[in-house]
Design brief:
It is a single chain. By secondary structure, the protein is an alpha+beta fold. Helix 1 (2-85) runs antiparallel to helix 2 and helix 1 runs parallel beside helix 3. The strands form three sheets. It has a four-stranded antiparallel β-sheet with strand order 6-3-8-9, with no helix packed on it. It has a three-stranded antiparallel β-sheet with strand order 1-2-7, with no helix packed on it. A hairpin with a 2-residue loop joins strand 8 (287-295) and strand 9. The chain has helices at 2-85, 90-108, 114-184, and strands at residues 188-196, 211-218, 227-236, 250-253, 256-259, 262-268, 273-280, 287-295, 298-307. The longest helix is centred in the N-terminal third of the chain and has 84 residues, at 2-85.
């Protein structure tokens, strides 16, 4: 009876132990479940936080990109404005280079943040202030230039008027000078010609003549300058050739050299002066002779004389 009793006790103890172990296992499972639930809740919470942070970062990134785009637009405008100035100015060239470098730096920027954006905006603002200063200076210079242009136009008109008056006065003076020069020409009048033999006697037939004698008078002219005057006589035969002097000497007429037939110097005192000139030659033929007299490079008188 005692042995049966012991066996039963052992069985009861084994059953008790199994029951206790089962209770422990159930508690452990519940603990794991709780931990899993807590971890799941934490994971969900972290996911929500990460999603919100990611969305906020995306929003901030979008805002930063908008700021980048705006700054690039401002820089583009400044670069165009600096470039449009096209002035040989070292300061403007330096500002243009700075704007270009800032634009390149902004384009290559990979990690934007608000501090960098503010720094870029500050630099752009500084460049914009400089640009506005240049624009004000240029406007001021343009106003001054316009005023100077108006004054220049006025001065040009005055100068043009003065030049016109001076040209008119010069033309009148030249005209008067021409009139004086023309009026100062010594004129020869009453030109005649005689045929002479070797004894200086007049002959009726020119073919018998040894020389020709020109007889004329220099007219009085108060505008002419008194003094010694060289008179050059050019006599052309009926056949059209010039009766030249022995040495074929020349004088200047209208810038060219001209051969003369005979020459004589006289003392002219602006009063009427009778003059005679001998023209040597031979082989004279009947017909009309053309006579030209020159004084001081001007034609003093001409005549056509018929000889028998």
């Amino acid at each position: 009876m005692r042995e049966d009793y012991n066996e039963n006790d052992d069985r009861y103890e084994d059953e008790y132990d199994d029951y206790g172990q089962e209770q422990v296992d159930n508690k452990a499972v519940r603990g794991y479940r709780i931990v899993i639930i807590i971890l799941a809740v934490i994971l969900v919470a972290l996911s929500v936080v990460y999603f919100n942070m990611h969305r906020q970062q995306q929003a901030e990134y979008a805002l930063l990109e908008e700021d980048r785009t705006k700054i690039q637009g401002d820089l583009d405008s400044l670069i165009v404005s600096f470039d449009d100035l096209k002035i040989q100015n070292d300061s403007i060239a330096a500002n243009l280079e700075e704007a270009n470098q800032l634009m390149e730096q902004l384009k290559n920027e990979r990690r934007l943040n608000y501090a960098k954006i503010r720094a870029y905006e500050k630099e752009v603002g500084t460049l914009r202030t400089v640009m506005q200063g240049y624009i004000r200076q240029i406007d001021s210079l343009n106003n001054i230039n316009q005023q100077l242009t108006k004054e220049n136009i006025s001065y040009k008109k005055e100068i043009s008027t003065a030049q016109l008056r001076a040209e008119m006065a010069e033309e009148r003076a030249e005209e008067l000078n021409n009139k004086v020069r023309v009026g100062a020409v010594i004129r020869a009048r009453s030109i005649t010609m005689q045929a002479l033999n070797n004894r200086g006697k007049e002959v009726t037939r020119v073919k018998n003549a040894q020389r020709l004698y020109l007889d004329f008078a220099l007219a009085a002219n108060e505008l002419a300058e008194p003094g010694n005057k060289a008179i050059y006589a050019c006599v052309t035969s009926p056949e059209g050739y010039l009766i030249a002097n022995n040495n074929a000497s020349t004088f200047t007429f209208e810038g060219e050299q001209k051969v003369y037939s005979a020459m004589r110097e006289v003392d002219y005192e602006c009063a009427d002066l009778p003059v005679g000139i001998y023209v040597d030659g031979s082989g004279f033929t009947p017909g009309t002779y053309h006579i030209e007299l020159y004084i001081e490079g001007r034609l003093a008188g001409t005549a056509e004389v018929a000889m028998r």
